[in-house]
Structures are given as C-alpha cells and as structure tokens.
Design a protein that fits this description.
It is a single chain. The chain is mainly alpha-helical and 471 residues long. The protein has one domain. It is 82% helix and 0% strand.
Amino acid sequence: MASRSTPKISLSALHPRELARNLYASISQNPLLKSRIGSVVHLLTGNFGVAVTMLASTAVAARTLGTAEFGALALILALGRVCERLVRFESWQPLIRFVAAEENAADPQRLSQLYAYGLLLDVSSAFLAAILCIVTGWVAASHVGLAPDQGWLVAVYAAAIAVNFRGMASAALRMSGKFRTIAYVQFVGGLTRLALALLVYFIGGSLVEFIAVWTFAQVLDSMVFNWIGLRALAQNGIPSPFKASWSGLPTKFPGFLGFAFSTNLSSALRTLTHEADTLLVGFFAGPTAAGLYFLSRRIAKIAQQGGDLIQTVAYPDLARMWTSKGIANFAQTVKWLQIILALGAVVAITLCWFAGELALHLVFGPDFVPAFPMLLAQLFAVALILHAAPSRSALLAMNRPTYVLAIAAGSTVIFFATAFAAMPSLGAVGVNLAHIAFGLVTAVSLDIAMWRGLGRVRAEMGTQELEEASA
C-alpha cells in the first residue's frame, strides 16, 4: 500500500552533514534508487570522459583555426544541429512509455513491432532533417555570419545527420538497464574525433578537414550505437525491428504518434534555445563572437549532461513506478535526484568562479579568455535546467507530455524576449541571461505541476483506502 506522505526537508536538514546523512539513509532504504544512482555514476563517468575528448577536439580546432574560422565551424555545426533537432523525433520517450505498459504481456512480436514504429520515425525524420540542412546551408548560411564559400560545408555535415537515428536503440538499451553501455559506447566517436583532429592539426589542415572529421566521427558513433541497441533487443528475446511487420502500426499502438509529436515539439522548442542561440549570436555579432559563445555553451554542456543522464536513468523506472502506483518511491526518487543535481551544479559553478579564466587561457589560448563571463552565466542557467530534469521525466511518466510542451513553449517565448531585449546592450552575454530566464520559468513551472499532481493522486488513493476500509 502506497504511503500518502513524502518526507519534508526541514531547515536543519539543509546543513551539509545532515544532508549527506539523510541522502545516505534514503539511498540505503531504497534499493532501486541505490541501483539507479550507481547507473548515474557510470553515465557521469562515461560522459565526463567523452566530454573531455570533445573539449580536447574543440581545443585542437580552436588553436588550429583561430577565432574567426573556429566561429565558422561553430556556426556550421549549429546550423546542422538546429535542422536535425527541429525535425528529428526523440522516439525513445514514447517507446519507453509504451514498452513499460506492454512488457508485462511479454509478447516479443508485438514489442518488436513497437520498436519498429520508433525506428520508422527515427529513419524518416533523420532523412528529412538532412534535406532541410542542405537547403538551409544553401539559403541561410550567409545570414548567420558564414562566408559565401563556406555554405557548402553545411551540406557535408548533413551526411552525419542523415544516419544519426538512435531513438530506437536508445530505448532498447535503457529498458534493458544497460546504462554502462550507453556511457562508454560514446568513446568510439569521441576518441575517433580527437585522433583525427590531432592528425589535421599536425598536417596544418583547414576548416574543410575539421568539418570532415566531425562528420565521420558522428556517422561512426551512430552506426555503433544502433548495432549495440539491436543486440540488446536480441538478448531480451525481441526480434529485430527490421524484420517486424510495419503495417497498421498506428492502429495497433493508438496514442503513440501523438505522444511522439508532443515530445518532439517540446524537444524542438528546447532546440531553439540550446542550438539556435549560436546562430542568433552569429547574426548579431559575427562569427568570432559566435565562436566564443559556442565555446562557453560547449563547456557548460558538460554539467548539463547530468540532467540528460538523469532522464536516461530515471525515466524508465519512473514510468514503471507510475504504472504500478508506487507513488511514495516515485516522489522520493525525484526529490533526491534534484538534490544530487543541485550539489553537482554548485561544484561546477565554484570551480568555474575560481579557475575558469586560467583554464580557458591554458586549454584554448588567450584569444578565448573573453568567453569567461558567458561561461559563468551559462552555468547558472544550467543549474536551473538540471533541477528541472527529474520533474520533466516525472511528468512524462505521469502521461502529461502536453503540459511539458506548453511549458517549453512559454519558456521559449521568454527566452527570445529576454535575448532580443538584452543583446543590443550586452552582446552575447544577453543570450546567457535569456537562458537563465528560460531555466527559471521551466524549473518552477514543472515542479509546481509535478508536486500538485502527486498530491492529487495521494488524496485520491487516500479516499479509496477509506472507502475500502468502511466497506
């Protein structure tokens, strides 16, 4: 029988020693939370290693190209990613939601068809995104700060987008609990990128060679990831989605496509603030400022990946808890994940405050030190996004994707209003302030909706228990 109350955090519990004691006690009493925090640690370890290789590759490119051409590299990558994420489906989110409901029936053929549905969305949207990328590179490249002879490089990078479909494989690995695999398989692309970037550096290569390096590394990473995802399905006795019947999928899984469109729109709105922001800086301030801003975003993304990892690990279990009405564990898991992410954000901001400028000088060179104010502001924004990650996963598990979409839409409007108001006087830092406004609105809105929803469910369960007792 589910508990109707969730432990509150008193003021005395906010003392670091008491906080650590309460955290340890909660983890020890919750085997699932203990297991998943272990998975988060593996994912953080793997992603930190991948982030280090990415930063190393970025540093090599920055030192080779200089601020102007590095800014062009940033703009080309940003154009490609905006096109990709505006169109590409995050099919792992509806897949996890529907697989969690279907897996008790243990029908391998039906599960294979469900994964095939996700794969169909992945492949078609990746192909469409690649076409959009080519067209955008031809039409809009010069308007965001790229030289006329650099637009064709966007089409080269489109090859990576065309094969970057991984939603189905991601869902398969997450539902199988293979978080170590997710963590460490990324090293394939990361190490390949770094090795090739160093090769380009030693031969004195140009922007063209670096675009080729980024493209090849992403293609290789996607191919390896999908191969491992298919192996995970086979190990669970689920036939390959490529062999499943693809006919009548919308009828067999009603609601799947609507859920997918909703989460995709939510993801697309986040893309407008997390990828198109570089293009916005390029439009207003040119490629050099865009390169500095891109660098600050790339470094801050190391911390932001913690939120993505929380969703990777927690979402499948939260979906199962909600389905089985394990409300007490559901609430406790969300609460402690938010506390852990807050601690991580404080550490990241503190390190940046004391060592950020020196690190930028040593790693990227003196020309990139002006990125420090943007990096510090970006980390404050990331802290808010990290706080919102568990509640966002919780609301998706509670089958409230429409509300998540509405919050993403409202926060996006606030982002652009803040950016256009602040950029004329503050330059690229104005976009960082817009990220802080976006994160604040998102975190507060998602938290209110989640805790109110849990309160209503507890009240309904309490009423039902009283009725059963009186009967």
